[in-house]
Amino acid sequence: MEQNNPIIPKGINDIIRFGTAFSFFFFPVFFIVANLLHPNLMEPGSLTNSQDWIIRFRGHPMLHFAHFLEFMSAPLLIIIATHYYGRTQNTSPWLGFIGYIFAVWGALMLIGSKSAFCFTISAFDTLPDESLNMIIPALDALLAKEGLLCILASLPLLPLGFLLIGIAVHRSKIVSRFESVLILLGCVLLLNPEIEIVNLTASIILLVPFFMYSIKLLKGKGVWNKQLKEV
C-alpha cells in the first residue's frame, strides 16, 4: 500500500530549517560563553559542602548568567537530537533512536538541574548573609540531591546520548569524516564530571562541525525530514 508523504507549507519548512540551523550554531556558542564565565575556570574542583558553594556563587552575577545560557542550551540540544534522529533513521535506526531517547531525557535533566541548582541559587544570592546562613541546611539538601532531585543523577545520559547519535551520524555519512570525528571527540569530552575547562574545550571542538552544518542548512541542504513535501 502506497503511503502518502505529509505535505507542509514552504514557510513552515523554512522555519524548521532556519530554527535548526540556529540551534546548531548557538548551542556551542552558548556553552563556550557559559564556561568562560565560570570563576576558577583553570582550577576545577567539585563542591563538597554548602560553604564552598556559597563562596562560589555569592556576588557573582555573571555566573548566574552563565547558568542561564546553559539552561537555554537544553531546548537547542533537543532540536539538534531530533534533527539527527530524522537523518539517521535509514542507516542506524536503533542506535539513533536510543541516542535520541538518552539525549532528550538528558536535556530535560539539564533543565531540571539548572532550575534547581542555578536559578534557585540566584534567588538565594539576593539574601543578606544572616538569612543565607540560616538556610544552609536547605543548601545541604540541594547539594546532596535529596528527594526527587536524585533523578538528576541521570544527567550524564545527555552526552552519552549524543555520543550514540554521533556514531549514527558517522555511519550515515551525512557529514564529512572530519566533521563526524569532531562530533565524536566533543561528545567524548563532555562525558566528564562537569569540569568547566574540559566542557569549554569540547564546546570549541563542536563549534566547528556544528557551524559547518548550520551553513548547509541555511543553504537548503540537509532538511531534517526530506520526506516532507512543500506546497
Brief overview:
The protein contains 9 helices and 2 strands; from the N terminus they run E-H-H-H-H-H-H-H-H-H-E.
Secondary structure blueprint with pairings:
Blueprint: E1 7-8, H1 10-36, H2 50-57, H3 61-88, H4 93-124, H5 129-134, H6 136-143, H7 157-172, H8 177-189, H9 196-218, E2 229-230
Parallel strand pairs: 1-2
Helix pairs in contact: 1-3, 1-9, 3-4, 3-7, 4-7, 7-8, 8-9
What this model shows, in words?
The protein is built from nine helices and two strands, in the order E-H-H-H-H-H-H-H-H-H-E. By secondary structure, the protein is mainly alpha-helical. It has one domain. A two-stranded parallel ribbon has the order 1-2. The longest helix has 32 residues, at 93-124. Mean pLDDT is 88; it is low at 227-231.
